Description:
This protein is α/β, with parallel strands linked by helices.
Amino acid sequence: MLQTNDMSRSLAALNQDSTLVVVIEMGQSSWLVRGMIPGVARQPLKKVTPDEAGLLKLLHRWRSEAVRMSREIERIVVAYEAGRDGFWLARWLRARDIEVYVIHPSSVAVSREHRRAKTDRLDTELLMRAFVGWLRGEKRHCSMAAIPTIEEEDAKRPNRERQKLVGDRTRIVNRIKATLARLGICSFKPTLRNAVNRLTGLRARDGTPLPENTQAELRRDMVRLRLVSAQIKEIEEERLRKLAASASPQNSSHAMVCLIARVLGIGIETADMLVNEILSRHLRDSKAIARYAGLTGSPDESGRRRREKGLTRAGNTRVRRGMIQLAWRFLRFQKQSALAQWFQARTADGRSGTRKTMIVALARKLLIALWRLATTGEIPQGVSLRPAV
């Protein structure tokens, strides 16, 4: 059965006599462009500077070349692999009526030789074979990434920036504690408001004051810590302000965040991450949701051998890590829910290995339940909600 949002194959028929197919191997200093021109036996290969206007000029030149061979071009399709450059080129070309697709790099099959040849030229040949197979509607050639709008990409930035700043804060705090531990001081808490004032009164375990250079280093670390903490607070306050100003049905993502945050055990930070990273994406079904989060298994079956290699870990790392943490938290705040009771019934033996395995299954079920809550309003059985504000 064909799905309207199935990115594993093209749903439009391919007419190779009227379609100009182009793939791009994007680099930092140059782009290698390969084309398949109707009426032309060779596949031209052109190295260009990273310039979108020059690329568009090349596409029109190849179209004129096909017209000279008595081929009327009705469709120009361009593809490149997702990577450091993101989706800006796809949006730019689409605004100029060029059909663009972004290929998942991990979905393209490559040779399994121990030392296979790898050059940009060979990569464009591989991309062209996979892309043409995808355009024909054949499965397993490659998969495409959904191209987000600039607003959808920008909505992810506050959560990702905050995550990075929290990591920076943890590193600074650990560095301060490690510096003081070398002097025998283990009770100092750098996160307290008056921590800077307490530095002058600190004494090493032998009663001597802190060395001059160590004290100067600690003060600089405390300045960094205050700056990072202030930036985290600024991000959180700005998010709350935007949610309060735009939590209307017209702004579906903000309304979705407010709905998910009503579930006991889920805060604004987790709800914002889930909505912007996965729940607002138009994924096909519950299997696609679990697969995108990397919470599905990877079976290894050959002959009589039947074993499970564990999680695929091929999806969104932020969602996977956040859902595992949320699953443990869910067991504390939603003990009467059907999902929590399902987990308790299957881990009654008390073995830690069973709990570690089943918490992944709970995270997968919980993610699917939150997806249904966000898209259809279906409340998971037994889940307690906060009152609507």
